[in-house]
């Protein structure tokens, strides 16, 4: 019987638990109403807070505006009125009219600086600035002012009229072209920078950024300075100018040190070396006794030796004296070219016929081998009388000689020039020998020149280099 009672009580408790458990998915309406009330109150509080903040901000702005107005009023009351005398105390420059647009632009800039310094009002700027227009500029403004409507002329209108007169569009184009073509050239870096700044004011579109301005300035530098700055990749104008000045200064210092070292070592500079070499070359290339130098062939052997010696002197070596040649008596290196020269008088090599001593007798000392101008014997009265009373020279028919040679020999001989020349606009094969005593022309070429040939008073015998003799009877 006891177990049955326990079962009945258990069933009763289960039924009571099921009755007390609320149904699943249902919310109490009181809770929902409470939540809605809280949400509405929160939104109302937030709106009130925003309205309060907006009101506070407006009050602050009104207070600041009020203070600013009071400050301006106090400043206007305290500041003295700007007069022309106070503006004149700033010493603005005068403008007398100029064709240089740089000067006109600079005058406007100085006026604007004076306006800012003295705090000139807009209604007084044109009046004050026009006072400093003198001479031609003053006449221009009187004419332009009469053509303008009555009333106040603003500073902007004055600037427009001023630039139309003294800085028109075609001048602006010229200044732009000058800026684009600007190069350093012979100017120093500071001079180039001054000119660059002066022209850049007229072309603001090319220098409106630091990078563009620096690049444009760098492009106009000398090539060796520009190559040094290119590896640095500088982007600011000030950095490019500074580095360019440093490079130029260091280069000048290096050149001065180099010149000082050369001066201490006794090495002449490049200009002195070139001038000395040219002087020596001119002496070697020119004929003696005022002869024509246009047909003289240069002494290639000796000049080459001099070049080698000159190169040695540039390396710091002192130039030794050249040895004296035993053949010609001059100082040079290499083989003397006179060894291949044959005298027409004595048939001996080593000298020309003009320098031959055979047959020459001095009238002072009566010794052969030299003339009276080269005689070292003391002058006496008897010698002078003999020289004055010397018998006249009898004209003897000379034995003329010509130097017959090939083209190759003419090229190798420094005293002979061979080539084609124009004689009366007719090309002729010419061979010029500085040691020859006569000049000859072929009959064929003489006919081409329409030359009239006349017989000689006597037969002229010509001896050529192979000892053959030719008789000439026409001239």
Automatic annotation (TrEMBL):
Domain of life assignment: Eukaryota
Chain spans, region Disordered: 1-30, 59-80, 252-317
Record-annotated CCHC-type domain positions: 343-357, 362-376
Compositionally skewed regions (Low complexity) per UniProt: 70-79
SUPFAM superfamilies to which the protein is assigned, alphabetical: Acid proteases, Retrovirus zinc finger-like domains
Bias (Polar residues): 9-23, 271-281, 302-317
Gene Ontology biological process: proteolysis
GO terms of molecular function: aspartic-type endopeptidase activity; nucleic acid binding; zinc ion binding
PROSITE patterns hit by this protein: ASP_PROTEASE (PS00141), ZF_CCHC (PS50158)
Gene3D superfamilies in alphabetical order: Acid Proteases, Zinc finger, CCHC-type
Name of the featured protein: CCHC-type domain-containing protein
The species this protein was found in: Heracleum sosnowskyi
């Amino acid at each position: 019987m006891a177990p049955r009672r326990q079962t009945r009580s258990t069933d009763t408790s289960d039924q009571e638990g099921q009755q007390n458990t609320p149904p699943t998915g249902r919310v109490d309406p009181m809770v929902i109403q409470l939540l809605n009330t809280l949400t509405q109150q929160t939104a109302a509080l937030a709106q009130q807070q925003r309205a309060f903040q907006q009101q506070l901000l407006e009050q602050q702005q009104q207070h600041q505006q009020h203070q600013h107005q009071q400050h301006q009023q106090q400043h206007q009351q305290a500041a003295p009125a700007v007069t022309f005398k106070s503006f004149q105390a700033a010493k603005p420059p005068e403008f007398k009219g100029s064709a240089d647009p740089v000067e006109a632009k600079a005058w406007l800039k100085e006026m604007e600086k004076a306006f800012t310094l003295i705090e000139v009002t807009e209604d007084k700027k044109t009046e004050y600035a026009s006072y400093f227009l003198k001479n031609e500029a003053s006449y221009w403004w009187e004419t332009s002012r009469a053509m303008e409507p009555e009333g106040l002329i603003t500073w902007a209108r004055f600037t427009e009229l001023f630039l139309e007169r003294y800085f028109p569009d075609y001048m602006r184009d010229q200044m732009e072209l000058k800026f684009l073509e600007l190069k350093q050239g012979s100017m120093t870096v500071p001079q180039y920078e001054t000119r660059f700044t002066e022209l850049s004011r007229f072309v603001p579109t090319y220098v409106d950024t630091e990078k563009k301005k620096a690049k444009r300035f760098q492009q106009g530098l000398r090539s060796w300075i520009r190559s040094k700055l290119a590896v640095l990749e500088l982007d600011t104008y000030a950095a490019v100018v500074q580095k360019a000045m440093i490079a130029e200064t260091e280069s000048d210092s290096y050149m001065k040190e180099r010149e000082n070292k050369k001066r201490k070592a006794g090495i002449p500079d490049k200009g002195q070396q070139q001038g000395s070499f040219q002087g020596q070359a001119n002496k070697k290339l020119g004929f003696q006794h005022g002869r024509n130098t246009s047909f003289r062939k240069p002494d290639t052997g000796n000049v080459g030796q001099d070049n080698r010696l000159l190169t040695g002197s540039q390396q710091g070596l002192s130039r030794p004296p050249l040895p004296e040649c035993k053949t010609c008596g001059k100082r040079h290196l290499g083989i003397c070219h006179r060894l291949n020269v044959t005298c027409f008088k004595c048939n001996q090599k080593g000298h020309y016929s003009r320098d031959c001593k055979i047959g020459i007798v001095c009238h002072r000392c009566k010794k052969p081998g030299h003339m009276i101008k080269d005689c070292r014997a003391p002058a006496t009265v008897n010698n002078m009388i003999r020289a004055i009373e010397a018998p006249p020279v009898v004209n003897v028919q000379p034995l003329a000689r010509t130097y017959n040679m090939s083209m190759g020999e003419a090229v190798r001989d420094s005293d002979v020039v061979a080539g084609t020349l124009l004689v009366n606009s007719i090309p002729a094969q010419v061979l010029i020998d500085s040691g020859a005593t006569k000049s000859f022309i072929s009959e064929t070429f003489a006919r081409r020149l329409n030359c009239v040939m006349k017989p000689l008073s006597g037969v002229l015998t010509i001896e050529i280099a192979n000892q053959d003799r030719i008789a000439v009877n026409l001239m």
